[in-house]
Design brief:
With 280 residues, this protein is α/β, with parallel strands linked by helices. 39% of the residues lie in helices and 12% in strands. The chain has a single domain, classed as Dihydropteroate synthase-like (TIM Barrel, Alpha-Beta Barrel). The structure holds pterin-6-yl-methyl-monophosphate.
């Protein structure tokens, strides 16, 4: 069927006590593996397993704690033949996960969190998500100024790509992620979504993670209806908004969208795919 370019769904399993949307739910390895299987059954093509929350104020697990959380889940899911990614900023965790069968390393620090990450990615040949985040360059909670958020995210991601290529990573290994919610306020996130085609135009596959993020917790297209102080809707009530943002990301050419709940986004993407093939 002729249609829109395919956008994959990456389902999230956070094996953490404190992630903002699903913290504590999949801390037990068996529960996490079962959740990964469920995400795939629902339509996820990739399962992203993370053992460290980036929620502001959360304490970092030790490397051993992080390994203990993610490795059993990564290896069990990889053994079942699933495409697994590991969400980590640590080269040691990433390397062990790749040895256990992970196909992709998802690094929210874009390689800035661990100097050994680039060389390790080059040596293993694993695919690598380079996400935009200024948090490790400055204070993670600092507010950030952008004159043109899309242009600055593009140029900062390009600088990371150049550094990684210099370390021996191949272009084919790389995936870009503009890092929704990371060093960005709600207005930045909306501008980034509106200008996502410019990130896609950099020519590498783009992963987009808007799922349940804070900027989706205070929605109104009518000025004055939801003023800045309005109460946020809880994360588990943000899946419709997530499906909408993920659909827009797909339409802008995203390679994959990262979500906590697969069905709403799967259905939104299917609606678009079906209209592409209809009426011709
Ligand atoms: N967001 C979170 C964690 N990991 N990885 C990528 N590539 N992109 C993201 O936007 C992203 C990420 C934070 O959300 P979570 O803690 O609820 O999973």
């Amino acid at each position: 069927m002729p249609g829109a370019a395919h956008t994959a769904i990456m389902g999230v399993v956070n094996v953490t006590p404190d992630s903002f949307s699903d913290g504590g739910r999949w801390l037990d390895a068996d529960a996490a593996v079962a959740r990964g299987q469920e995400l795939v059954a629902q339509g996820a093509e990739l399962v992203d397993v993370g053992g460290e929350s980036t929620r502001p104020g959360s304490t970092r697990p030790t490397e051993q704690e992080e390994l203990d959380r993610v490795l059993p889940v990564v290896s069990a899911l990889a053994q079942r033949g699933y495409a697994v990614s590991v969400d980590t900023m640590r080269a040691g965790v990433a390397e062990a996960a790749v040895e256990a069968g992970a196909a992709l390393v998802n690094d929210v620090s874009g390689g800035l969190g661990d100097a050994r990450m680039g060389p390790m990615i080059a040596a293993t040949g694993a695919r690598y998500v380079v996400m935009h985040w200024r948090g490790l360059l400055t204070d993670a909670t600092a507010t950030h100024h952008y004159d043109d958020v899309v242009a600055e995210v593009c140029s900062e991601l390009s600088a990371r790509v150049d550094a990684l290529l210099h370390q021996g990573v191949a272009t084919e290994q790389l995936v870009l992620d503009p890092g929704f919610g990371f060093s960005k306020d709600a207005d930045h996130n909306w501008s980034l979504l509106a200008g996502l085609d410019r990130v896609v135009a950099l020519g590498l596959p783009v992963l987009v993670g808007t799922s349940r993020k804070r900027f989706l917790g205070r929605l109104s297209s009518r000025p004055g209806v939801a003023p800045p102080g309005a109460e946020l809707t809880p994360p588990e009530q943000r899946d419709a908004a997530t499906a909408a943002t993920s659909l827009l990301a797909a339409q802008a050419g995203a390679w994959a969208v990262r979500v906590h709940e697969v069905p709403p986004t799967r259905d939104a993407l299917a609606v678009w795919q079906l209209t592409q093939g209809a009426g011709r």
